[in-house]
Amino acid sequence: MNSALATRASAVSTSPIALLGLCGFLFAVRIMMSKMALDAGVQPFQLGVFGNLGAGLFLLPWLASARQKIPMKPEHLVLYVVLGIVSFAVPTVLSYFVVERVGPAYTSIVYCLSPLLTMTFAAGIGMERMFLRRFIGIVLGFLGMIALVRQQILQIDIGQPVWVAVGLAIPVCAAAGNIIRSAWWPKGTSALAFSCGASFSSAVMVALMGPVFEAPLEWRFADAGILSWIVTLSATSALSQVMNFRLQQIAGPVVFSQIGYWGTGFGVLLAAVLFGDVLTVLSFAGLACIIGGGVLANRRREV
Q: Of 32, 37, 159, 188, whose CB neighbour count within 10 A is largest?
């Protein structure tokens, strides 16, 4: 039994499409859990700080059992800082302001541009070759995503064009982070070690920004409900981080960038199962486009 489970786990860890599906599912679960935690009284930056810190702490025993350690050379520390700024700090701050001025619908939808931008950046610097099948796959996934979020698109307030333009920097940062992680992946470092280091650095970056937007002294931890949400989200984030970094390691930045598409798809399915949301023909068409796009955009890569 254990041998069979190990074989299946190994197969998932080396299959880009299987990993993409798992990462997308975990993405959707994290989004739903984050919303529930915020509804329970956890503040956004509090969740960001302790969600990432908790994820790193959950990964440390796993790292120790694997007899690995977080790479801590000067170049690695610089990489963590850069990723913390590009992938977490800047998008978090921009999202904070754009949500307030343009609305949450637009903020979530601009992330649809991340795979297109990642593909363009990767091809532009020669990291990954642009070819027709991949281009069709990314575009197909984009159309599927648009089909799933069509209702949110109708709610976008474009009355403040400056902030609409500013919001476009969010997917640019996401795409840049995808490229940076692949281009400067620490040599000889596992996805487990890299994700553990990135979790801690992200917690530090969000902690430095937190006092600007929230009052840390007002963060509550004594409430059992709040504490349980932080711990649960930390554990889920730990698993999600490792799987995300493994996907990027074996599939590259373009395939990795589609996690948001698959996460939205799983979010729609979970909402239907858990909350009774109705799936329409267009919903199924969108899901089919996302899956088909992921298959087309995938490429084989020797690890």
A: 37
